[in-house]
Amino acid sequence: MKRDKCASCGSAELRIRTSNGGTYGMNKIPIGHGRNAVATMDNVVCIECGHVDFYINDPDALAKIEQTWEAL
Ligand SMILES: [Zn+2]
Fold this sequence. Notes:
Layout: E1 14-17, E2 28-30, E3 38-46, E4 52-56, H1 59-68
Antiparallel strand pairs: 1-3, 2-3, 3-4
């Protein structure tokens, strides 16, 4: 469900980086306790305006969030 256009300026000049590894905390989001408590996110950057989006690409992590987080 990734966008092919920037959410901010509408540009299609997007770049994605996946599997950013364990160095920077901003690429991870805590989703619960215990094993697999952190989901790694893909980063999408707009070359035109600098807007950054984060995406979780792990279906198991999304399922866990669906089950354990509050619905809006
Ligand atoms: Zn943009």
